[in-house]
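Appendix B. Raw example, untouched.
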Amino acid sequence: MHMLSLTIELAAPQSINGKRASYQSLWLLVRLIYARRHEAATSVVRLAELRQQFTDARTLRMFVSRAFRDFAQWRVQVGWGEDVHTDPRFLNLDRRSQGPFWLPAGEDEKITCMVNGKPATQAELLRFLHLKRQPVAAPSAPTAVQPDYWLALAGAQQQLREGRLLAALDGSARRSNNGALAGFKLAARSASSRVQHALAVLGEAQVWRRLDDLEAARKTLVRLRRMLKEGGADEGGYLDAMEQILSAWCAYTERDLALTEALLLAMGQAEPRASVVRHHPRIRFEWNNLMALVRRAQALASDEPGTRDAGAAEAIRLFGAALDAAFEVASFDAAQQAAANIGMAAWLFACEGIGPVSDAQAVRPDAVRWLVLSEWLCQCAGAAGQSAWNAIYLMRIARGDCVNEEWPSMTAFRAQQPISPCDMARYAAGPVDLLNAASWMDVAARLLAQQREQRYGLLQRCGLLLEHAWYAVHYGGADTAHASLGLLMSEMRQLPASDKAFFQAELRRFPPEIATGLKT
């Protein structure tokens, strides 16, 4: 039989084994005992509850430090963090003040709580703890649930898919035209729980990243991280994982590949996030897709043939894993991203002579088929306007066989023969609206005009302006091309150095008279 080695007297003056004890430390220990014995579904005590219970405590960090010093004197093991199965002896002390706190299995068996020398009942434990909220909510009547929050969240998520990030520029006051950012803020105001609030904040962070406002995105992610740490709002780990994914995306947008890779590797290797990456298909898609982009960039930047080939193979494998996960969760929105990335990566690798196939013409049919699949999936998802990448990639592939000499003459430039949308449709697995256009110039002009209703990301805008200018010159619109290149020069100043270098090289492939005054 297990010997009880610790006796707590709850009646004033409180004591442990006959010795006076600090009330706050004793309260936390009794609260942990109550959680272990009577709240098996959670069995943890979160930081938010301590903040609510001891509103006059100067800092919770000091509270926690004093409590754990007392626990050590009382020879009681107390753990912290989300994984309640970890041995407390091996936990990171730097994270102890963040909670949540728990007793390891069996630890409460050596402790008995008494009131005036008699074993305390559950009711007496509750009266001693004087909880300002019941540990287990059990309302006698169901609470009416309103749809307002979910209407706002669903509307914001759909507008995010469609690329309608901000209010429409036509002055319309219709709710549906207010944009995803306003929609997520409205949802946050309508939230009735911490989980609902966190979902809305996550959506807001996604919008800020898509708007290329990385400072606002990171500040919003800090808010989300604070909510998750203090409230335990993420029992399944999805919100925590998405916060890490978006942090990695912010790093990737700045082309900080080392930080992006480090964040992703840490997710994939450390529990409990590693389990979320393995078992949650949406997170698995995000992780594989972004890591594939990192491996693609590393392969293209490397000078070592073996490293380039291995990186290219790994990128294609990861894109494939992302596509599998996207279809597992039945998300055409996610699947179209992976399909587009597979097609463009295969073509880029072939153009650079990386991998088993170094002939861009040989790879082109399959690359186009992947991009057409992506565009078709966009249409199926009702989000055909969310991105210009498929059009940009197809326009770039269409002129892939054209001369790449610097500062060509106007005659030589216009003599080049890019593949028309109609001819490119021969490679496609099925018809898409994108390939029904009379010319690529029409495609680029139409997409640029869509900026009135939705805002493309900075890199997409630069890519569109480049293709618009190239095809404008080819079709004889020198003034139109010059105007687009002027806008491109203004926009590309905000790009990371590696992306800026790409566009600077592309500018040198225009006739000198078109690029007059635009040379960098």
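End of appendix B.
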